[in-house]
Design a protein that fits this description.
There is one protein chain. Helix 3 packs parallel to helix 4 (114-124). The protein contains nine helices and nine strands. 35% of the residues are buried. The protein has one domain: 3-Layer(aba) Sandwich (Rossmann fold). The protein is globular, with a radius of gyration of 19 Å. Strand 3, helix 3 (87-101) and strand 4 (105-108) form a beta-alpha-beta unit. The N and C termini lie far apart (49 Å). It is α/β, with parallel strands linked by helices.
Amino acid sequence: MTDSTNGRERVPQERHRGAVTLRRDSIPPSTADEKLLDSHHRGEWKTKDAWRALRILSEFVEGFDTLADLPPAVSVFGSARSSPDSPECELATQLGAALAGAGYAVITGGGPGVMEAANRGATEAGGMSVGLGIELPFEQGLNDWVDIGIDFRYFFVRKTMFVKYAQAFVVLPGGFGTLDELFEAVTLVQTRKVTRFPVILMGTEYWGGLFDWIKQRLLADGKVSADDLDLITVTDDVEEAVKMIVDADRAANGNGKR
């Protein structure tokens, strides 16, 4: 099968499904998430969903147990399709190093592209680098710069880990998955489902059009308030982003040092 984005041949040879590794003909055509959420097989709801609930619980237990002793951390999101020499990957490497220098672990989705660049920057700077992988139809695998890696079956379990252990979200250029993570983070902060923390978009040229649309359409139509716009910061400056995270962290902890 060919990737329409870059023309490269993508033939899955290995897939990680939680603790299970599947290869070659053992790779199923669907993912655990797809089976759980598929409304076309209602007959399975009474026979299989109860067991799936136990598997979901086990993923939460594994994530909580593994990450409980993690130092203060920042979740970094961005495209898996970005080439290593792209501007966003260079920015992600600088960001990872700066966050490590400020005492933060870096959490990514553990894949290639921007995620790998952020993990690499953190690891090379002597910081802790975390990768939270997910079962996908085309397996990416955890990149080599991850110190602690967990492979999840279910997106919603993985998303909980991104939020629970992060003092901030930093979002670099990406696609649908990155947008999903961005707007979920903003919604959680807006609705006070989580304690307010910085949500930073890095790449003014990339994100500027989206932010302008939010102001010109959503704000103008009364779908969001002016205060909601303050939940997001757009910048190209790594130092500014890290300072914002450190200042917010210290303010949340009574202006003391972490």
